[in-house]
Amino acid sequence: MFEHLSLLSFASGGWGSALLAGALVTIALALSCLPIGLPLGLGVALAARSRRRWPRAMSTVFSTVFRGLPELLTLLIIYYGCQIGAQKLLAAMGYETEVAINTFLAAMIAFSLVFAAFSSQIWLGAFKTVPKGQFEAAAALGLSRRTTFTKVVLPQLVRIALPGLSNNWLSLLKDTSLVSTISLVDLMRQTNLAVSVTKEPMLFYAVACFGYLFFSAISGRLFQFLEQYFSRHQRSARP
Amino acid sequence: MSFDELQNLFLSPDLLERYGPRFIDGLLVTAKLVAISFTLGALLGLLIALGRLSSNRFISRFTGVYVYFFRGSPLLAQLFMLYYGLGSFKGFWQDVGLWWFFRDAWFCTLLAFTLNTAAYQAEILRGSILAVAQGQREACKALSLSRWTTFGKIILPQSLLVAIGPLGNELILMIKASAIASLVTIYDLMGVTKLAFSRSFDFQIYLWAAVLYLLIVEVVRRSLKAIEGRLGRHLQ
Predict the structure, then answer these.
(1) Which domains does chain A have, with CATH numbers?
(2) Which residues contact B110 (CB under 8 A, 6 or more apart)?
(3) How far apart are alpha carbons A73 and B192 in whole angstroms?
(4) What is the 8-class DSSP label of residue A181?
(5) Are B161 and B125 in contact (CB under 8 A)?
(6) What is the pLDDT, as a whole number, of residue B57?
(7) pTM for this structure?
(8) DSSP state letter for B2
(9) Using CB atoms, which residue from B77, B89, B218 is nearest to A205?
(10) Interchain proximity B213–A217, CB inside 8 Å
(11) A109: which residues sit within 8 A by CB, 6+ positions away?
(12) How many Å apart are CA B224 and CA B173, to the nearest integer?
């Protein structure tokens, strides 16, 4: 039992600090998908509601493709596709070199696209709950389209969309474990390394599972707090 | 650009001849994997859902922890834990005569997928069972139907109608997740794709795999929609 605990220690010979570093990469990767994925998802949802045909068709194709493909396949296509594309581009300009795309960047792009596709559906569902009267009232007050969207519609959307987005975030967090296959050293990859050295698969994979569980639990708390914050106007007054 | 060159760019006949049959095999493996684990997962998931609704504190707590664990951690980690982790107790499995099961990547993958989807399906079924109006249960009591008849003939059919949409989503998620099986030496569609790519370094293989996956998911999604419409036709 103590041998097992010493394997997880932060001292030399323990894998504690390595696992922690991997966990930080996992979190960093998942978080860095949000600044691209969230606005892109919202944009796709707006395109799906557009009156013109082209934006509608584009958004349908985008969300069908990235929701239908396995995440692993998306990741590999983006990773190898960027690599081969960059190589071809450089070859066309006269350079003959081996190009290695940063794995973190490739994973970030792939998961942002997947997250955007899934969250666009959440945004679309949320749009349906905003009554038409809100738009009409904003128009009657002479608010510009931009102000209508940012000050009237978006705050209501966020409240409705949060539970769905929280689900998407949790699956994003779990999907990031796939980057271990393109040898980005995240929590899963560190675990694989630890297993190959120590030959203790049960212990380390269980630790990895609990690591992900821990992150899920924390994000659950965080989203609970956010939901409360965004529906604070609906709380009844305390006596 | 001649027609041949154009064809080579999108689907070279050479590749099709060499890897076409393998792709069919991979497709069948994926289908088998998803079908078996989804069916077993549905049975296990129903038991777990009933366990979560049970008034026995111990059972409901235990099934709650099960669901929390399998929904909160990645399928990849669970698969590795079952395949490499349980596989490391070779002596023990040989003693109990189950070594043939845990030695085989195929069975381990089936087990991991079944346990994982059972947790998700349990939550879907639990929600749908709770969605059946309380009056239905009271009416059954008033008719003095047995508990078994109440559940089998009254509650379950109504809750399945609610559950079929989310269950269909779960089936699609399973089809997508089955690509993970390729990481433990299973030659499913993804495994075949990776093999073909590592031999030919032709990027179009990945794109063809993507087309196949999209096709499967779209066909499944449409047929589920049709089934849902048919089952709910008395509500329209």
Answers:
(1) 15-230 (1.10.3720.10)
(2) B33, B36, B37, B40
(3) 12
(4) G
(5) no
(6) 92
(7) 0.89
(8) -
(9) B77
(10) no
(11) A36, A78, A82
(12) 14
Using one digit for the tens of pLDDT, what is the confidence trace for A86-139? Answer: 888 888 887 777 777 888 999 999 999 999 999 999 999 999 888 889 999 999
Enumerate domains of chain B plus CATH numbers: 3-235 (1.10.3720.10)
Structure tokens at A69: 């493909």
The structure tokens listed for B227 are 């089934």
Task: Read off the tokens for A96.
Answer: 């003959």
* ipTM given for this complex: 0.87
- Alpha-carbon distance A155 to A136, whole Å? 17
Mutate to test the interface with A, among B68, B73, B193, B205 (most CBs of A within 10 A): B73
Under DSSP, the state recorded for A238 is: P
pLDDT over 80 at B221, yes or no = yes
Question: Are A161 and A126 a contacting pair, CB within 8 Å?
Answer: yes
Nearest CA among B34, B22, B21 for reference residue B180: B34
Residues 190-209 of B with CB under 8 A from A: 190, 193-194, 197, 203, 206-207, 209
Contact criterion met (CB below 8 Å) for B87 and B104? no
Q: How many CB pairs under 8 A join A and B?
A: 106
